[in-house]
What we know:
Elements: E1 2-6, H1 11-22, E2 26-31, E3 44-47, H2 53-60, E4 67-70, H3 76-86, E5 92-98, H4 128-147, E6 151-156, E7 159-160, H5 170-178, E8 183-186, E9 192-193, E10 196-197, H6 198-208, E11 217-220, E12 227-228, H7 229-240, E13 246-249, H8 251-255, H9 275-281, H10 289-303, H11 305-308, H12 322-332
Parallel strand pairs: 1-2, 1-4, 2-3, 4-5, 5-6, 6-11, 7-10, 8-13
Antiparallel strand pairs: 9-12
Amino acid sequence: MKVLVLGGTRFIGLRLVRHLASQGHDITILNQGTIKTQLPPGIKQLYANRRDPETLRRALRGQEFEAIFDITGYDLGNLKPVVELFAGKIAHYVFQSTSAVYAESNYRPILENFPRINETTPGKTLATYEINKVECEDYLFREYHETKFPVTILRCPVIYGPDNWMHEREFSFFVRLLQGRAILLPDNGTTLLHFTYVDDLVRAYLSLIGHEATLGQAFNIVGSQAITSEGYIDTIAELSGVSAEKVYLDSQAMENLERPVFPFPRTGNSFYGIYKAKESFGFWPAYSVNEGLRQTYDWWQRNLGIAKTRFQPGRLGYDVDLAYEDSLIERYG
Length: 333
C-alpha cells in the first residue's frame, strides 16, 4: 500500500512509520524537516509547510497515495490545504483527534456520540487546542457528507509509550521515583486516568484501513483499563523497584497552584468506551496498563535514563520544576 504520513519523525508518527515499514508498505512522510531522526530504510521524505497550499503542491506534485495518516493536523489552517489537494484522489484519510473534544458528562464510559465542546459549553475550560480539533472534526464530517471524502477520525486521551518526546509525562515520574522524591497526587489518589498506549494506537491505524464502515466515523482509541492516579504511581514504583511516597493535595488547591505539578487530569474521572471500534473494525487494545508502562519503562532505561531526560519549559504549558515541588511537599507532606 502506498501511504503518506503527515509527520512521521517522532513519537506517534515515528512508531507508525516503523510498523508500516515492517509490513512492507511504500511509505512517504511529509513534514517541515526540522526534526531529524533515524528512519527505516526506503522511507521517502518530502518537506513542506502544510499551511501553504503552493509548497504542498510543489512537494506532492505527481505523488499518488492510497491512504494518508494525518498526525499533525491541529487546526483548519493546516488541515484544509491537505484535504483540498487530495479530494477525490485517495481511498482513506485517517485524522488524529483527541478525547478533549468531549463536553463534561454525568455518564461513564464516554461514547463517541456524546456531546462535544463548543464556545457555550458549561463546566469545562476551553483551550485553543480543543476547540481547533472540534473545528477540524466538523470540517471533515462535512466533507464526508457533502463530497464523500473518505475520512476516519480517531480520538485519544493522553498517549504514552516509547519514543515519547513529552518527557514531562510518564518519564518525569520515572525520574522522581528513582530519585526517591515524594509524588504529589490530587485528592486521595482515586482519580481515574485512562490512557492510550502508542503501539495500540498504531495497531488501530493499521486495522481500520479498508473498512468502509469506518468512513465518516469517529472512534475512541484507548486502553481497555482505566487506572487510579495512585495505582499509576504504584505501578511505576513496582517497575522501578522502589517504594512510592505520596503526598495528597486537594484537587482544587492543586488547580490553583502557581505552577502545575501533575500533568494528567486532576479532577473528574476519565473513562472512555471502545466497543464501537471493536464492532466496526475488530480493534481491541493488546496492552494492559501494566504491560504498556513496563514496555515504556524498559525503553526509557535503554534509551534515556535520568541523564537524558529533559524537562523543557513551556512545552504543552507544563513545566517540571522539582524545586517547586519540594517546597510543596515540605508544606503539605
